[in-house]
Amino acid sequence: MKLSYRLILCAISLLLFFSATDTYGQSPPGVSKFQEVETDMKSFYVALSRLSFAVGAVSGLVGGLRVYNNWQMGKHQIDVQVVSWFGACLFLATMGFFLSGLYAVPLT
Protein backbone atom coordinates (compact mmCIF):
# COMPACT_ATOMS: atom_id res chain seq x y z
CA MET A 1 0.00 0.00 0.00
CA LYS A 2 2.78 2.44 0.93
CA LEU A 3 4.73 1.53 -2.19
CA SER A 4 1.80 2.16 -4.52
CA TYR A 5 1.04 5.45 -2.72
CA ARG A 6 4.64 6.60 -3.21
CA LEU A 7 4.61 5.43 -6.81
CA ILE A 8 1.40 7.36 -7.54
CA LEU A 9 2.77 10.44 -5.77
CA CYS A 10 6.01 10.22 -7.76
CA ALA A 11 4.11 9.78 -11.03
CA ILE A 12 1.87 12.77 -10.29
CA SER A 13 4.83 14.97 -9.34
CA LEU A 14 6.70 13.97 -12.52
CA LEU A 15 3.60 14.66 -14.58
CA LEU A 16 3.21 18.11 -13.03
CA PHE A 17 6.91 18.85 -13.47
CA PHE A 18 6.98 17.96 -17.15
CA SER A 19 3.70 19.70 -17.90
CA ALA A 20 4.99 22.87 -16.22
CA THR A 21 8.16 22.89 -18.33
CA ASP A 22 6.09 22.61 -21.50
CA THR A 23 4.04 25.66 -20.59
CA TYR A 24 7.13 27.70 -19.73
CA GLY A 25 8.71 26.78 -23.04
CA GLN A 26 5.92 28.42 -25.00
CA SER A 27 5.96 32.14 -25.56
CA PRO A 28 2.92 34.21 -24.69
CA PRO A 29 0.75 35.31 -27.58
CA GLY A 30 1.88 38.47 -29.35
CA VAL A 31 5.58 38.35 -28.50
CA SER A 32 6.59 37.68 -32.09
CA LYS A 33 4.46 40.63 -33.25
CA PHE A 34 6.16 42.93 -30.74
CA GLN A 35 9.56 41.83 -32.04
CA GLU A 36 8.49 42.52 -35.64
CA VAL A 37 7.24 45.98 -34.68
CA GLU A 38 10.50 46.69 -32.85
CA THR A 39 12.60 45.90 -35.92
CA ASP A 40 10.25 47.94 -38.13
CA MET A 41 10.47 50.92 -35.78
CA LYS A 42 14.26 50.77 -35.76
CA SER A 43 14.38 50.83 -39.55
CA PHE A 44 11.81 53.64 -39.77
CA TYR A 45 13.60 55.62 -37.08
CA VAL A 46 16.91 55.52 -38.92
CA ALA A 47 15.22 56.71 -42.11
CA LEU A 48 13.37 59.51 -40.32
CA SER A 49 16.47 60.68 -38.46
CA ARG A 50 18.37 60.89 -41.74
CA LEU A 51 15.43 62.82 -43.19
CA SER A 52 15.71 65.20 -40.24
CA PHE A 53 19.38 65.81 -41.06
CA ALA A 54 18.54 66.41 -44.72
CA VAL A 55 15.76 68.87 -43.86
CA GLY A 56 18.16 70.64 -41.50
CA ALA A 57 20.76 70.95 -44.25
CA VAL A 58 18.25 72.29 -46.78
CA SER A 59 16.91 74.70 -44.17
CA GLY A 60 20.43 75.94 -43.52
CA LEU A 61 21.08 76.52 -47.20
CA VAL A 62 17.80 78.36 -47.72
CA GLY A 63 18.37 80.44 -44.61
CA GLY A 64 21.90 81.30 -45.67
CA LEU A 65 20.71 82.39 -49.09
CA ARG A 66 17.94 84.54 -47.63
CA VAL A 67 20.30 86.22 -45.18
CA TYR A 68 22.86 86.81 -47.93
CA ASN A 69 20.16 88.24 -50.21
CA ASN A 70 18.89 90.61 -47.51
CA TRP A 71 22.44 91.68 -46.73
CA GLN A 72 23.15 92.43 -50.39
CA MET A 73 19.88 94.36 -50.68
CA GLY A 74 21.10 96.75 -47.99
CA LYS A 75 19.09 95.55 -45.02
CA HIS A 76 21.53 95.87 -42.16
CA GLN A 77 19.32 94.47 -39.40
CA ILE A 78 19.76 90.82 -40.26
CA ASP A 79 20.82 89.68 -36.80
CA VAL A 80 17.38 88.26 -35.99
CA GLN A 81 17.26 86.30 -39.25
CA VAL A 82 20.73 84.86 -38.72
CA VAL A 83 19.91 83.72 -35.20
CA SER A 84 16.51 82.27 -36.17
CA TRP A 85 17.79 80.30 -39.18
CA PHE A 86 20.84 79.07 -37.28
CA GLY A 87 18.61 78.00 -34.37
CA ALA A 88 16.28 76.11 -36.70
CA CYS A 89 19.18 74.25 -38.32
CA LEU A 90 20.74 73.47 -34.96
CA PHE A 91 17.42 72.19 -33.63
CA LEU A 92 16.84 69.88 -36.59
CA ALA A 93 20.41 68.60 -36.52
CA THR A 94 20.44 67.84 -32.80
CA MET A 95 16.95 66.33 -32.76
CA GLY A 96 18.18 63.21 -34.56
CA PHE A 97 21.00 62.70 -32.07
CA PHE A 98 18.75 63.38 -29.09
CA LEU A 99 16.09 60.91 -30.22
CA SER A 100 18.67 58.24 -31.02
CA GLY A 101 19.99 58.53 -27.49
CA LEU A 102 16.50 58.58 -26.01
CA TYR A 103 15.32 55.44 -27.81
CA ALA A 104 18.74 53.72 -27.83
CA VAL A 105 18.75 53.33 -31.60
CA PRO A 106 22.09 53.69 -33.40
CA LEU A 107 22.28 56.01 -36.41
CA THR A 108 23.94 53.43 -38.66
Helical content band? over 70%
Strand residue percentage: under 5%
Shape: rod-shaped
Low-confidence stretches: none
How many beta-strand runs? 0
Distance between the termini: 70 Å
Structural class: mainly alpha
Tell me, rounded to a whole number, the average pLDDT.
Answer: 78
Q: Which sequence of SSEs, written as H and E, runs from N to C? A: HHH
Q: Calculate Rg over CA atoms.
A: 31 Å
Number of helices: 3
Number of domains: 1
What does this structure look like?
The protein is an all-alpha fold and 108 residues long. It has one domain (2-103). It is built from 3 helices and no strands. Helix 2 runs antiparallel to helix 3 (79-103). The longest helix is centred in the middle third of the chain and has 42 residues, at 31-72. The radius of gyration is 31 Å and the shape is rod-shaped. The protein starts with a helix and ends in a 5-residue tail after the last helix. The model has no long low-confidence stretch (mean pLDDT 78).
